[in-house]
Amino acid sequence: MRATTTGWVRLFVPVSVALICMPQAQSDDASDGIVVAASGITITARQGDTLSSIATRFTSATSNWVVLGKLNNIRKDTSIPVGSAILIPASLLPDEPAQARVTMLSGTVTALGADRQPVTLSIGSRVVEGMQIETANNSFLTLGLQDASRVSIPSNTRIRLSILRMARYTGSPRTEITILRGKVESQVSPLAPNMGRYEIRTPMAMAGVRGTHFRVGLQANGTTANELLSGIVEVSRLTPGPGVSLQSGQGNIVSSTVGAPVALLAAPQLTDQASLQNGGIAQFKAVTLAGAAAYHLQIGTDAQGETPFAETRSSGPAMSLSGVNAGDYFVRISAIDALGLEGYARVVPVSLRPAQAPTPSAPTVDSSDSKQFQLSWRSPAAAGFNVQVARDVQFSWLLFNTTSTKPVVTLPRPPFGTYFARVQIRNDDGSTGPYSASQSFVVTDQWIIHDGNPVTAQSGRVR
What we know:
Elements: E1 6-7, E2 16-17, E3 27-29, E4 34-37, E5 40-44, H1 51-58, H2 65-71, E6 85-89, E7 95-97, E8 100-106, E9 109-112, E10 118-119, E11 126-127, E12 132-135, E13 140-145, E14 150-153, E15 158-167, E16 173-181, E17 183-187, E18 197-201, E19 205-218, E20 224-237, E21 244-247, E22 250-254, E23 262-263, E24 275-277, E25 281-285, E26 294-300, E27 308-314, E28 318-321, E29 327-336, E30 342-352, E31 364-368, E32 372-376, E33 384-390, E34 398-404, E35 408-412, E36 417-426, E37 439-443, E38 448-450
Parallel strand pairs: 1-2, 16-18
Antiparallel strand pairs: 3-4, 4-5, 5-6, 7-15, 8-11, 8-13, 9-10, 9-12, 12-15, 13-14, 14-17, 15-16, 17-19, 18-19, 19-20, 20-21, 20-22, 22-23, 24-25, 25-28, 26-27, 26-29, 29-30, 31-32, 32-35, 33-34, 33-36, 36-37, 37-38
């Protein structure tokens, strides 16, 4: 996906999103006479202070004295009376380095520092401005920012932490993440006017976000998909032109133009048909949702869906994941519309246990004559069957070891004695299921009769 938006959004790739933080509680720094508020700070002038000296001390440039003068109704850069309250807006406060921490990591995640040298990441690792992070297939990373915002980076995504700073004194976040490939989902701490900024950028677009939960993604055709789960987002291209406002539950596509808002799909339901097949293949099925062109499924270990270890997309409601062990999990499922916009997600607990292979009933003697006898059994549909007849219940002394394509087989009549028969299903791929219980039978000069109830081949217990 390529991004082409600006404003407040929930985005998937190269797009930029800006957020405005909630005001912090007012605090008074008695030692410096600094009062911190939502709009900035207020300082108390000292002996010999001028607008220039205050701008040099508290802002990012001495030239800011002009702005300070207008804001505080002071016309000249001369001495200011001691004790005067001088307001300095948050926009003029200098930046200080911030950092993030790795709070979740699964799979293969690689990183380069600002110096382009490899960096090893693990849970708790410190992440700083200028780093580039890339996730491989079925690999996931979550970053926790200093203001408690969270950035989730799913599979096959590459990002750069272009700006990771905070305003001095207020601590207002100033974050810019550039998506080079893939998708980013952000949950941002509430922002209030002029207190902070959170942006997600792509090569073609920027999105400024006044919200808390959003995604930005680059689609295969080069467009940018914006999705807003909560808040308000203003989306526009990087080039001059009109934008659109997205409300909670809306998304749009940005290409050569900024697409109109459309409603995001509701979260689909997952049926109770989840199963674990041989080889660790987990199978799921969603209830078909009107308007869905595809489905997205992640599996993880927490009820919030924040620790995924595998994911898949499917054009239909049936989905499967490989390499899944038996256990209890949480599945996060969402639907994607024809534009490529992903809707709301639902997290569902699932219990995956190995599927029980179908087992046929113990074979019984249907008929016999002086030359042959017939065994039959009940069984689910199968490609074929393996049939064994032995002298002993452990089937170490085999008399017959044959196959049949139907749940019946005719064999030569054996000599006088006691025998045991069992059968197993043979699948299309050549694999086989467990053997049935074994049925004992006695061959006499005149009859072939059953000798008791079926028993298991290994224990000899009645089944």
